[in-house]
Amino acid sequence: MSAVLTALGTMGAIIALGWVLGRRGTLGEHAPAVLARIVFTVATPCLLFVTVAHADLHLLLSRSALATAISTTLVAVTAVAVLRGLWKRPAAEATVGTLAASYVNAGNLGLALAVYLLGDAVAVVPPLLYQLLILAPIAFAVLDARAAATAQDSTTDQGAIRVRPPVTRIARDIVIRTARNPIIVGALSGLAVAALPWDLPEVLYGPFSLVGAAAAPLALVTFGMSLAAPRLTRERAPRRDLVLVVALRSVVSPALAWLAGTLLGLTGEALLAVVAMAALPTAQNVLVYAMQYGRGQALARDAGLVTTVLAAPALLVITALLG
């Protein structure tokens, strides 16, 4: 129990620091955008490279990984079906909402929880790898596609007549933008290193580890600074979108993880690990991604705040029932 409270308290303190800095304007009005760009283009790719490079890829074939994949996929598909299919949200906003519902804080709170509550950091690897290798590439492909299409439209308008470039050119631009995405480059580079039949000297990981260590705290500081924006000028998330995302993240996801794990025969600590990881709050990196693409910032910010508050009671209940 204390591990959950300690991890959440640490996150809360860093978020509070960001709020104070934002409230006082210590770093200037453009600081949140600059910090978000640093996290997105430098710190997070370094962290992902080192994390994936040291991961045991055999975990991708375990029953725990399968249970995580099933529950996460169902949550993501549900979010897309409602946000995009039913409520007709724009593709980019629906993508950010889907990430907010399915992308958990595995690298920060999840790692602390796995170490202090479960006694082994390996529990965080399946959800982390699934997010990096499946969710992130798909989400960034959609976001880059919308960004590329918007850029093409803005440069091909000629008076009242819009000249749309060939589909092949748009597709090529999307592939190039996706391949250059720092998050995907970091994750795939780490995967390539993990697949090598030999181990690289640890000294080579030193610079990446040092820079990557800044990813989580900077993301939390950025999150806190976004909360300090004046209420009159701060964009508000659509209420029903927020309710949907929070329900999927805090209630539906752990329930589906428990069901999938039980059907796959998981018991004891293995089942606890899967369900606890599924109950983690929305990752603050989702807000960083939203700020990077300029879409869905309010939903990412509010979902991160609400699910983080709800994470403590949810994890305490799960620990009491399955621990």
UniProtKB/TrEMBL annotation:
Membrane association type: Multi-pass membrane protein
Pfam families (alphabetical): Mem_trans
Sorted UniProt keywords: Cell membrane, Membrane, Transmembrane, Transmembrane helix, Transport
Chief localization: membrane
InterPro entries xrefs: Mem_transp_PIN-like (IPR004776), Na+/solute_symporter_sf (IPR038770)
Domain of life: Bacteria
Transmembrane segments: 6-22, 34-53, 65-87, 99-118, 124-143, 179-198, 204-230, 242-264, 270-291, 303-322
Subcellular location: Cell membrane
Family: Belongs to the auxin efflux carrier (TC 2.A.69) family.
Protein name: AEC family transporter
Originating species: Cellulomonas chengniuliangii
Lineage, highest ranks first: Bacteria, Bacillati, Actinomycetota, Actinomycetes, Micrococcales
